[in-house]
């Protein structure tokens, strides 16, 4: 009997969460986000996002609410053609000097191909954890799925369902982890020709402007952050069971790990953990630990 009651309670809880769920899952850009830069360079309609960059301005948008843990998903089609100097940034960030941040950035190329998929993570203000990849597809000819999974145990960057990078929680060993600050979701298109393409040697060619990137199907299956150290609401019951209360370190299956290894072997072009010159031999502590 007790079991049955527990089951009924559980059912009610899941149903209640499912109602909450609808307000956050499949959130459209126009409902869930606000424009923060380039009002006349941005379009949001029917769940589509259009980011424009020309010589006068770029464009940026951010979520209205902040999240602590969850799965943040967006389909993106990058700037086609000569995109050197342009950067599409899609990231989570908190505010303040000791901020947390989880990044996807897409650096263009003068020949159109290949792009650089740049990733980084900051915890308590400390970044310098870049890893870069070549896409194994043409990211300008169609939409591709870039997803950040973030739970108390680990952060995983996914591209079209394939994990490419993991950052694990080694807080107990003195390495900061992003788990105390809510982060908002940002997307932007801007000119970074002082560094983006071959360290700033290739400049943005403004005669090719306007540059346009597009987004679709923004989804935050994520817990809501309301400004204190505790999570208030999780928008999706699956987040709760699969991510928020993750019992073990790794949520990735053996198959996913194998696919990630293959991508890293074949398409990773920069790994801060291998850059001994940069760190003068004193490598960041997480580099000597299991990465995934
Ligand atoms: C995008 O990828 C994530 C992570 O693999 C997955 O959970 C989600 O269902 C995908 N979304 C779409 C629209 O394909
Ligand atoms: C741009 O593409 C060319 C090939 O067309 C490649 O050799 C080069 O490394 C790429 N540049 C960057 C900065 O990724
Ligand atoms: C810039 O783009 C224009 C138009 O495509 C082209 O004619 C010109 O050669 C480009 N300039 C440089 C420096 O590549």
Automatic annotation (TrEMBL):
It comes from the Eukaryota. One of its GO terms (cellular component) is apoplast. The lineage of its organism: Eukaryota, Viridiplantae, Streptophyta, Embryophyta, Tracheophyta. Keywords: Apoplast, Cell wall, Cell wall biogenesis/degradation, Disulfide bond, Glycoprotein, Glycosidase, Hydrolase, Secreted, Signal, Transferase. Its main location: secreted. Pfam families: Glyco_hydro_16, XET_C. Its EC number is 2.4.1.207. Residues 1-27 form the signal peptide. GO terms for molecular function: hydrolase activity, hydrolyzing O-glycosyl compounds; xyloglucan:xyloglucosyl transferase activity. Glycans are attached at residue 109. Catalyzes xyloglucan endohydrolysis (XEH) and/or endotransglycosylation (XET). Cleaves and religates xyloglucan polymers, an essential constituent of the primary cell wall, and thereby participates in cell wall construction of growing tissues. Residues 1-215 form the GH16 domain. Belongs to the glycosyl hydrolase 16 family. Contains at least one intrachain disulfide bond essential for its enzymatic activity. CDD domains: GH16_XET. GO terms for biological process: cell wall biogenesis; cell wall organization; xyloglucan metabolic process. This is Xyloglucan endotransglucosylase/hydrolase. It is found in: Secreted, Cell wall; Secreted, Extracellular space, Apoplast.
